[in-house]
Protein backbone atom coordinates (compact mmCIF):
# COMPACT_ATOMS: atom_id res chain seq x y z
CA UNK A 1 0.00 0.00 0.00
CA UNK A 2 1.54 3.35 -0.97
CA UNK A 3 2.22 5.92 1.72
CA UNK A 4 -0.14 8.93 1.46
CA UNK A 5 1.83 11.86 0.07
CA UNK A 6 1.11 15.50 0.85
CA UNK A 7 0.97 18.04 -1.94
CA UNK A 8 3.32 20.36 -0.05
CA UNK A 9 2.96 22.67 2.90
CA UNK A 10 3.36 26.30 3.73
CA UNK A 11 6.45 26.90 5.88
CA UNK A 12 6.78 29.52 8.54
CA UNK A 13 9.71 31.21 10.20
CA UNK A 14 11.61 30.01 13.26
CA UNK A 15 9.58 29.19 16.32
CA UNK A 16 9.11 31.88 18.93
CA UNK A 17 10.11 30.10 22.10
CA UNK A 18 10.26 33.03 24.50
CA UNK A 19 7.07 33.35 26.48
CA UNK A 20 5.57 30.21 25.00
CA UNK A 21 4.66 28.85 28.40
CA UNK A 22 4.25 32.10 30.29
CA UNK A 23 1.52 33.09 27.82
CA UNK A 24 -0.13 29.68 28.01
CA UNK A 25 -3.79 29.62 28.91
CA UNK A 26 -5.49 26.76 30.68
CA UNK A 27 -7.34 25.68 27.56
CA UNK A 28 -10.60 25.48 29.50
CA UNK A 29 -12.34 28.04 27.33
CA UNK A 30 -15.04 28.03 24.67
CA UNK A 31 -13.71 27.83 21.13
CA UNK A 32 -16.68 29.38 19.38
CA UNK A 33 -14.35 31.65 17.39
CA UNK A 34 -12.93 28.52 15.78
CA UNK A 35 -16.28 27.22 14.64
CA UNK A 36 -17.27 25.70 17.96
CA UNK A 37 -15.98 22.70 19.91
CA UNK A 38 -15.30 19.36 18.27
CA UNK A 39 -17.33 17.10 20.53
CA UNK A 40 -20.86 17.35 21.92
CA UNK A 41 -22.22 19.11 18.87
CA UNK A 42 -25.83 19.65 17.95
CA UNK A 43 -26.42 15.92 17.67
CA UNK A 44 -25.14 15.33 21.21
CA UNK A 45 -22.88 12.58 19.88
CA UNK A 46 -19.41 12.17 21.33
CA UNK A 47 -16.33 12.09 19.14
CA UNK A 48 -14.06 10.99 21.99
CA UNK A 49 -16.10 8.45 23.91
CA UNK A 50 -17.64 5.05 23.21
CA UNK A 51 -19.79 2.80 25.35
CA UNK A 52 -16.87 1.47 27.41
CA UNK A 53 -15.71 5.00 28.23
CA UNK A 54 -19.25 5.92 29.26
CA UNK A 55 -19.56 2.90 31.54
CA UNK A 56 -16.41 3.89 33.42
CA UNK A 57 -17.39 7.56 33.53
CA UNK A 58 -20.80 6.68 34.96
CA UNK A 59 -19.25 4.31 37.48
CA UNK A 60 -16.97 7.09 38.74
CA UNK A 61 -19.38 10.00 38.32
CA UNK A 62 -17.26 11.83 35.73
CA UNK A 63 -19.51 11.87 32.63
CA UNK A 64 -20.34 15.58 32.89
CA UNK A 65 -16.70 16.47 33.48
CA UNK A 66 -15.64 14.35 30.50
CA UNK A 67 -18.25 16.03 28.31
CA UNK A 68 -17.05 19.47 29.41
CA UNK A 69 -13.45 18.58 28.57
CA UNK A 70 -14.43 17.16 25.19
CA UNK A 71 -16.43 20.29 24.50
CA UNK A 72 -13.24 22.32 24.69
CA UNK A 73 -11.43 20.28 22.04
CA UNK A 74 -10.92 22.14 18.78
CA UNK A 75 -9.24 21.73 15.40
CA UNK A 76 -7.49 25.09 14.95
CA UNK A 77 -4.35 25.97 16.91
CA UNK A 78 -4.60 28.93 19.25
CA UNK A 79 -1.65 31.29 19.45
CA UNK A 80 -0.54 29.95 22.84
CA UNK A 81 -0.70 26.39 21.50
CA UNK A 82 1.36 27.37 18.47
CA UNK A 83 4.03 28.92 20.70
CA UNK A 84 4.04 25.88 22.97
CA UNK A 85 4.45 23.43 20.10
CA UNK A 86 7.12 25.46 18.32
CA UNK A 87 9.19 25.75 21.49
CA UNK A 88 9.07 21.99 22.09
CA UNK A 89 12.18 19.84 21.65
CA UNK A 90 10.27 16.56 21.64
CA UNK A 91 6.93 14.97 20.82
CA UNK A 92 5.49 11.50 21.33
CA UNK A 93 3.58 10.09 18.34
CA UNK A 94 1.21 7.13 18.58
CA UNK A 95 0.15 5.15 15.52
CA UNK A 96 -1.57 1.86 14.69
CA UNK A 97 -0.59 -0.83 12.18
CA UNK A 98 -2.90 -2.71 9.81
CA UNK A 99 -3.53 -5.42 12.42
CA UNK A 100 -4.64 -2.91 15.06
CA UNK A 101 -1.40 -3.06 17.09
CA UNK A 102 -0.59 0.39 18.51
CA UNK A 103 2.88 1.77 19.18
CA UNK A 104 4.32 5.07 20.33
CA UNK A 105 7.50 6.77 19.15
CA UNK A 106 9.59 9.55 20.64
CA UNK A 107 10.67 12.25 18.18
CA UNK A 108 13.26 14.81 19.26
CA UNK A 109 14.87 17.83 17.67
CA UNK A 110 16.00 21.36 18.30
CA UNK A 111 13.22 23.63 19.63
CA UNK A 112 11.08 24.57 16.65
CA UNK A 113 11.57 21.27 14.82
CA UNK A 114 7.79 20.81 14.82
CA UNK A 115 6.32 23.58 12.68
CA UNK A 116 2.77 24.85 12.50
CA UNK A 117 2.10 24.99 8.76
CA UNK A 118 -1.55 26.00 8.71
CA UNK A 119 -4.47 26.85 11.02
CA UNK A 120 -4.83 23.20 11.97
CA UNK A 121 -1.74 21.64 10.39
CA UNK A 122 1.75 20.82 11.56
CA UNK A 123 4.87 19.14 10.20
CA UNK A 124 7.31 16.77 11.94
CA UNK A 125 10.66 15.76 10.39
CA UNK A 126 11.82 12.15 10.31
CA UNK A 127 15.54 11.76 11.01
CA UNK A 128 17.80 8.73 10.65
CA UNK A 129 16.66 6.00 13.02
CA UNK A 130 16.82 2.25 13.46
CA UNK A 131 15.49 1.43 10.00
CA UNK A 132 12.22 -0.17 11.14
CA UNK A 133 10.03 2.76 9.99
CA UNK A 134 7.40 1.80 12.53
CA UNK A 135 5.56 5.13 12.51
CA UNK A 136 5.74 5.74 8.76
CA UNK A 137 4.76 2.16 8.00
CA UNK A 138 1.80 2.44 10.33
CA UNK A 139 0.73 5.72 8.76
CA UNK A 140 0.72 4.01 5.38
CA UNK A 141 -1.82 1.54 6.77
CA UNK A 142 -3.78 3.88 9.03
CA UNK A 143 -3.30 7.66 8.90
CA UNK A 144 -4.81 8.26 12.34
CA UNK A 145 -2.20 9.44 14.86
CA UNK A 146 -2.02 10.94 18.33
CA UNK A 147 0.61 13.48 19.42
CA UNK A 148 1.59 14.34 22.98
CA UNK A 149 3.65 17.45 23.74
CA UNK A 150 5.03 17.75 27.29
CA UNK A 151 6.84 20.56 29.08
CA UNK A 152 8.89 18.88 31.82
CA UNK A 153 10.14 22.18 33.26
CA UNK A 154 6.77 23.89 33.83
CA UNK A 155 4.48 20.84 33.86
CA UNK A 156 2.05 21.05 30.97
CA UNK A 157 0.62 18.71 28.33
CA UNK A 158 -1.03 19.25 24.96
CA UNK A 159 -2.61 16.51 22.86
CA UNK A 160 -3.27 16.55 19.13
CA UNK A 161 -5.27 13.91 17.29
CA UNK A 162 -5.08 13.98 13.52
CA UNK A 163 -4.50 12.35 10.17
CA UNK A 164 -0.94 12.00 8.91
CA UNK A 165 0.69 11.64 5.52
CA UNK A 166 4.20 11.71 4.13
CA UNK A 167 5.26 15.03 2.57
CA UNK A 168 7.78 14.67 -0.24
CA UNK A 169 7.85 18.36 -1.13
CA UNK A 170 11.56 19.17 -1.51
CA UNK A 171 11.13 22.73 -0.23
CA UNK A 172 9.55 21.46 2.98
CA UNK A 173 12.07 18.65 3.53
CA UNK A 174 14.82 21.18 2.82
CA UNK A 175 13.81 23.12 5.94
CA UNK A 176 15.13 20.22 8.02
CA UNK A 177 18.83 19.47 7.36
CA UNK A 178 19.44 15.79 7.95
CA UNK A 179 15.78 14.75 7.59
CA UNK A 180 14.90 12.01 5.12
CA UNK A 181 11.24 13.04 4.96
CA UNK A 182 8.60 15.10 6.73
CA UNK A 183 5.25 13.96 8.10
CA UNK A 184 2.31 16.29 7.63
CA UNK A 185 -0.48 16.07 10.21
CA UNK A 186 -3.90 17.68 9.89
CA UNK A 187 -5.42 18.08 13.36
CA UNK A 188 -8.88 16.75 14.10
CA UNK A 189 -8.87 17.36 17.86
CA UNK A 190 -6.58 19.60 19.94
CA UNK A 191 -6.95 19.61 23.70
CA UNK A 192 -5.07 20.27 26.94
CA UNK A 193 -4.41 17.69 29.66
CA UNK A 194 -3.70 18.29 33.32
CA UNK A 195 0.04 18.35 34.02
CA UNK A 196 0.01 17.54 37.73
CA UNK A 197 1.73 14.14 37.45
CA UNK A 198 4.56 15.33 35.21
CA UNK A 199 7.94 14.99 36.91
CA UNK A 200 9.90 18.21 36.60
CA UNK A 201 13.15 18.14 34.62
CA UNK A 202 14.72 21.16 32.98
CA UNK A 203 15.99 19.21 29.97
CA UNK A 204 18.40 22.03 29.19
CA UNK A 205 20.87 19.82 27.29
CA UNK A 206 19.81 18.84 23.80
CA UNK A 207 20.93 15.54 22.32
CA UNK A 208 24.39 15.77 20.70
CA UNK A 209 23.01 13.62 17.87
CA UNK A 210 20.73 16.31 16.42
CA UNK A 211 21.65 17.07 12.79
CA UNK A 212 23.70 20.24 12.29
CA UNK A 213 22.89 23.04 9.89
CA UNK A 214 24.55 21.05 7.10
CA UNK A 215 22.61 17.90 7.96
CA UNK A 216 25.61 16.06 9.42
CA UNK A 217 25.39 14.23 12.73
CA UNK A 218 27.51 11.84 14.82
CA UNK A 219 27.36 8.17 13.87
CA UNK A 220 25.29 6.20 16.41
CA UNK A 221 27.44 3.86 18.47
CA UNK A 222 24.75 1.17 18.59
CA UNK A 223 25.22 0.53 14.88
CA UNK A 224 28.75 -0.65 15.68
CA UNK A 225 27.48 -3.47 17.89
CA UNK A 226 28.42 -6.88 16.54
CA UNK A 227 24.79 -7.82 17.06
CA UNK A 228 24.01 -5.91 13.85
CA UNK A 229 27.04 -7.02 11.85
CA UNK A 230 25.87 -8.02 8.37
CA UNK A 231 22.46 -6.34 8.75
CA UNK A 232 23.32 -2.67 8.24
CA UNK A 233 22.75 -0.75 5.01
CA UNK A 234 25.92 -0.54 2.92
CA UNK A 235 26.70 3.06 3.82
CA UNK A 236 26.44 2.37 7.54
CA UNK A 237 28.49 -0.83 7.24
CA UNK A 238 31.28 1.09 5.50
CA UNK A 239 31.16 3.73 8.22
CA UNK A 240 31.52 1.04 10.90
CA UNK A 241 34.64 -0.30 9.20
CA UNK A 242 36.16 3.18 9.01
CA UNK A 243 35.55 3.58 12.74
CA UNK A 244 37.43 0.38 13.55
CA UNK A 245 34.82 -2.31 12.98
CA UNK A 246 32.11 -3.87 15.15
CA UNK A 247 32.31 -3.83 18.95
CA UNK A 248 30.92 -6.28 21.54
CA UNK A 249 27.98 -5.31 23.71
CA UNK A 250 30.16 -4.98 26.80
CA UNK A 251 32.09 -2.16 25.10
CA UNK A 252 28.96 -0.15 24.31
CA UNK A 253 28.88 3.11 26.28
CA UNK A 254 25.51 4.45 25.16
CA UNK A 255 24.75 7.47 23.02
CA UNK A 256 25.17 10.33 25.51
CA UNK A 257 28.70 11.11 24.32
CA UNK A 258 29.21 10.44 20.58
CA UNK A 259 32.99 10.69 21.00
CA UNK A 260 33.22 7.83 23.52
TrEMBL record:
<dbReference type="InterPro" id="IPR012349">
    <property type="entry name" value="Split_barrel_FMN-bd"/>
</dbReference>
<feature type="region of interest" description="Disordered">
    <location>
        <begin position="238"/>
        <end position="260"/>
    </location>
</feature>
<dbReference type="Pfam" id="PF01243">
    <property type="entry name" value="PNPOx_N"/>
</dbReference>
<feature type="domain" description="Pyridoxamine 5'-phosphate oxidase N-terminal">
    <location>
        <begin position="78"/>
        <end position="172"/>
    </location>
</feature>
<feature type="compositionally biased region" description="Basic and acidic residues">
    <location>
        <begin position="250"/>
        <end position="260"/>
    </location>
</feature>
<protein>
    <submittedName>
        <fullName>Pyridoxamine 5'-phosphate oxidase family protein</fullName>
    </submittedName>
</protein>
<dbReference type="InterPro" id="IPR011576">
    <property type="entry name" value="Pyridox_Oxase_N"/>
</dbReference>
Amino acid sequence: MPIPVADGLRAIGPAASNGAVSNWRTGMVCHASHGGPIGQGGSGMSVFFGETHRQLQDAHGTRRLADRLEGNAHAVFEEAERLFIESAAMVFISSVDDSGQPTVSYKGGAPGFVRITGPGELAVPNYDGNGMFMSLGNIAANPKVGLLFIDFERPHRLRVHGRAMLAEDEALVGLYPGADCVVRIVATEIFVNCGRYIHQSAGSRLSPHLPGADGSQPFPAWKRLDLFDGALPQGDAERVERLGGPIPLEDYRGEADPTS
